[in-house]
Each structure stands twice: as structure tokens, then as C-alpha cells.
Amino acid sequence: MNYNHLEMSRNTEELPEPFDENRTDSILKKFDIPALNAMQEEARTAILTKSDVVLLSPTGTGKTLGFLLPLIETLNKDCEEIQLLILVPSRELAQQIEQVARNMGSGFKINAVYGGRAGAQDKIELKHRPAILIGTPGRIADRFRRDGYSLESIQTLVLDEYDKSLEVGFENEMSEIIEALPNVKQRVLTSATSDVEIPDFVELDKPIVINHVPEEKSRLKIKTLLTSEKDKLNGLLLALGIIGNEPGIIFVNFKESLERISDFLAEHEIHHQCFHGDMEQVDRERSLIKFRNGTTRILLATDLAARGLDIPEIKFILHYHLPPRLKEFTHRNGRTARVNRKGIAYILRWNEEELPEFIREMESERLILEDQPSKPIIKATRWETLYVTGGRRDKISKGDLAGLFLKQGQIRKDQLGVIELQQKSSYVGVHAEIAEELIEKTNNTKLKKKKVRISLI
């Protein structure tokens, strides 16, 4: 079933109940958002009608908050079983949604499960059922098979980035999960693109389609950087000199190529982080954290980073390798020029390199790398990332960490950067020049009731 063939339907007999505007305003303040955007308002109205909803909107426009706000309003505080199930294609997206849901301060128990961590940990955390369960289809299906949870109270199912879940091979698990849910009354599907099929096993019933995927031309610029060398490593150095010290992602097609490029950049003392599917979960998380807080400006990644990740607005994308299909090219480019901002996608190309047909038909500015003036590459950033052995589970807040570093560490506010809380740990961006001294002043400090260790990562 394709969304284009779905009819927009609204149940006029089931209008949304009045929304708690004071509570909504309180939540928006936590996220430093003045008001819901048009897509989020439309999503709230549609979801509160209890209809099935297909929400289509580009990455970075706030879809997660758009569906969480109204769905949390529908949860029953007296129910002790799972009520809302959210399926996602990757562990990073599961963690991201869990973080957003927790930051909303709803009072409901929230848990996320995904591959890459011990199943025993899942079992402990789910001993008392969460109202909201988030997870990858493979891990959710495994937990349902093993643990025999009651699924009677799950009335709402969200398939976030559903097309990506299908693309990475979760169709069987998704079908199995949906078939096991006896009382689902509402389905919410989200995607960043509008040209994807919806499988029949999802069983959508006259959904409301909210399409905010823009049809107008993107503000993205595409530039082709031509190099005379078949081995493009030296061309990459020239390209980075032209681009300057801007935050961006270098995309490659294969893990082996990524490792070779990473070694080359390291030899030239160009600081970067790697991101690919064979990395350990903790290493992938730390790569993203350091990219988000500015410790590194360059993320060297496979297509795993093209969608569904919480990363900041970036200035450029560089295709070291071109993907085989337009779809992947589009998703990669979607990491920049988001929400009406400008961005540039660079294609690094050997003069005689064969191009996919979709690129041959595309207009782009062409520059010969060897003829272009370059800028000096600043090899280090002003930020470092501290690892703290305490997190939400220890009742530690961002304010607690900020207070520790500002008061006991005696640093200025402008020397303290992004703070990210996780269940068992935290990560704090600080100015590089004071990082070592700050560790000496604050390591092995008692924070709340826990003695925390602090180190550089």
C-alpha cells in the first residue's frame, strides 16, 4: 500500500479532547521551544482523534515530540502494563526517543530495549512494566517471545521511520509483533520521505495523512570536487582545505574504506570520529556525543548515519563514495540544509570515475581541487568530553553536574558545554584547555549519594 493512495479521513464524531496547554507549555520550556510548529500541531490534532496517522516530515522537524505529546496524554495512569509500543530501526533512535520522553517529565515509566546490550539488563528493567516501551523490532520480538508479557493493554503502536525498519530487514519481526497485539486501536507511522510503500500487515484503517515533506527545491547546494588522482585520499585533504573548519559528515560505502580513510586522517592529525555498524554500541554512542558537543567537527560514517540520528545542524556533507541509488543520496544530503537552512553536499570524484545515472542527470557546480585556494585545517577543536560515572539512575540532573563544575571546578559558564545524561553515566563538554585541571578538582566527588569518577574520553 502506498501512502499516496490513502484517503484522508477524519472522524468528526471523535474530536480531540481539550489539551492541557499549561502542561504543554511546561514541556516546551524544557526543550527551549516557544511553541509547537505547524506539523506538530497538525499531528496532535490528528492523533487525538484516535485515527490511524501517517506523519511525513523531514528529519529535524520535531516528529518525535509531535507524536509523543498527544500520545502521552492518552495513557492511563492506573494501568500497570505496557500501553504504548514504539518500534524503531536503530538503537540510536531508540535511545533518542527514550531521552526525549524522559525529558518531558510525564511521570510514566519509560524503557528502551535494543541489540548490543545484555538481555538480562532488559529483563531487570522490564520486571515492572513501563507504560511506554521503545525498541528495535528484533529485540522487542525476542523479549515478547521470552518473557510472556501481557500485551492486552497495548492500544497504540508507533512505527517510527517505518520505511527504514523495512529497509534494514525487520519486516518479519514487525509482522510478528503486530500479529501478537490483540487490542491495538491506533497506529502512528512516521517517515522523513513520502515515496515509500506501507505493507499490508500494518493494517492501517483509513489513516489521516499529514505530509510536510516539501515539494519545492531544497536550499541544498551540490558541488563536485574533481581530483586527478584515482586514489582520492589526497583529494580529500584538498577538499577539507577548501571547505574549512565546518562541522560535517564524510560518507563512505564500506567499513573497510572507512577504516583506511580514518587511518589517513589520523596520520595527518585531523581529528574525527567514526560511525559504522560493526562498532561496539558504547563507541558509536560516544562518537555521536563528541560530534554533537563540538569535540570533533568531522564524522566519518557509512549510511548508518544517514537517517534517524540525533545530530546537530551541520554545514556540509561530503560523498567520498557515491551511493548506488538516489534514495540513499537524498537521505545523506538530508543531514544538512534542514528546516529551511542552507547546506552544501560535496561529491569527491576522480576525473574518470563512472557516475550513477541519477548523478549524471543532476546539475552541480564543478571545481578542480588542484586549482582551488585552500584554508589551513585546524586540527583540534576547543572542546573535550568528560565521562562521569553517574546518571539518571543515580538521581543526578544536568543542574547537579553544572553546579559541580562551576562551583567546585571553578570554571566559567562559557567553558561549560553540552551536558548529556544517560541512565548510568553522563557526558559533559568542556573547554579543552581546562579539562585536565577540572578532572583533578572534581574526580571522586560525591554527587547526590554517589561518588563519581570523572575522566576524558
Structure description:
This protein has 457 residues and is of the alpha/beta class. The chain has 3 domains: 3-211, Rossmann fold (3-Layer(aba) Sandwich), CATH 3.40.50; 220-371, 3-Layer(aba) Sandwich (Rossmann fold), CATH 3.40.50.300; 383-456, RRM (RNA recognition motif) domain (Alpha-Beta Plaits, 2-Layer Sandwich), CATH 3.30.70. The chain contains 15 helices and 20 strands. The protein has a 7-stranded parallel sheet with strand order 3-4-2-5-6-1-7. A 7-stranded parallel sheet has the order 10-11-9-12-13-8-14, with helices on both faces. Strand 10, helix 11 (281-292) and strand 11 (298-301) form a beta-alpha-beta unit. Helix 2 (38-47) packs parallel to helix 3 (63-73) and helix 6 (137-147) packs across helix 8. The N and C termini lie far apart (47 Å). Residues 1-19 have low confidence and may be disordered.
